[in-house]
Amino acid sequence: MNLPAGLVLESGATLAPVQIAYHTFGTLNPARDNVVWVCHALTANADVLSWWAGLFGPGDYFDPADWFIVCANILGSCYGSTGPLTSGDATAEPLYQQFPLVTIRDMVAAHEALRQELGLERIHTLIGGSLGGQQALEWAILRPTVFTNLVVLATNAQHSPWGIAFNEAQRLAIFADPTYHEGTPAGGQRGMKAARATALLSYRSYDAYGRTQAETDPDRLDGFRASSYQQHQGDKLVARFNAYSYVALSRTMDTHHVGRGRGSAALALAFIKARTLVISISSDVLFPPDEQLFLARHIPGATYAAMDSEYGHDGFLIETAQITQLLEKFYVPSLVH
Questions:
Q1: Active-site option among 130, 202, 245, 250
Q2: What is the 3 state secondary structure string of the chain?
Q3: Which residues bind substrate (predicted)?
């Protein structure tokens, strides 16, 4: 979808034109009440079946045979929506590090424009984890009558100083790569590799590394499995993502505060009318359970559920069997179809 006039951003800048890449799966039923909208996290894309398998896909809880599933790529990404690799106009160079600050509310404004373009008056379920959960919360506050159910996982009402510090550490790694400042599509790749290795420490847990990366040779002095794993994960991200988008989206996450201009986070959350399920992960050090407990206390009638997982923050992508069980308990049969 294209917005030729663009969007006036929360900062006051105008981002124009704007393109929003999105995927839909399944068929909208005659009653138009089977819509599931997925808000994706930092480095994901609009193809939710590719990265949330086990929860979305044939035979999964959200099966396209039953649901009309929508997922839009977020502003600032490198997967089709307007971002740092996008030109300001048809003849200009990509914006690279001059890409303007986009907030969570700006991302939601793009989602809202797409919802209206698709003519979807009601959304049965709005779901997202991490940065996706931040978008979902903001949208449910902004348009409280649109969403029947809200499911947020491993997310928060305001990005924490701890989370911002992790993001800044990653950006410093990218800025330390001289190629980032050259403004080319491949700029900052070495820095992004280091950034991803740093981020992974916040996404997983001590126990997860102990189980998967422990050495079997007590005499080893170099070439440790954990070191190779960090290198491998950094290389994987470099092969599929872009450093300028990584910087832009981490800055977006830092802006998240549902209470900005609304008195407080607690007052803002009280606007949510959707039946809400808030899910935490026991070993999540990036978005610890206290943050989800805050959401559950202040969203009217919210249900709180804690998942026991050794995978840390990434548990919201991995523990799909547990999430399915929690969803089955949350939905009453009359609301599912």
A1: 130
A2: CEECCCEECCCCCEECCEECCEEEECCCCCCCCCEEEEECCCCCCCCHHHHCCCCECCCCCECCCCCEEEEECCCCCCCCCCCCCCECCCCCCECHHHCCCCCHHHHHHHHHHHHHHHCCCCEEEEEEECHHHHHHHHHHHHCCCCEEEEEEECCCCECCHHHHHHHHHHHHHHHCCHHHHHCCCCCCHHHHHHHHHHHHHHHCCHHHHHHHCCCCCCCCCCCCHHHHHHHHHHHHHHHHCCHHHHHHHHHHHHCCECCCCCCCHHHHHCCCCCEEEEEEECCCCCCCHHHHHHHHHHCCCCEEEEECCCCHHHHHHHCHHHHHHHHHHHCCHHHHC
A3: 196, 314
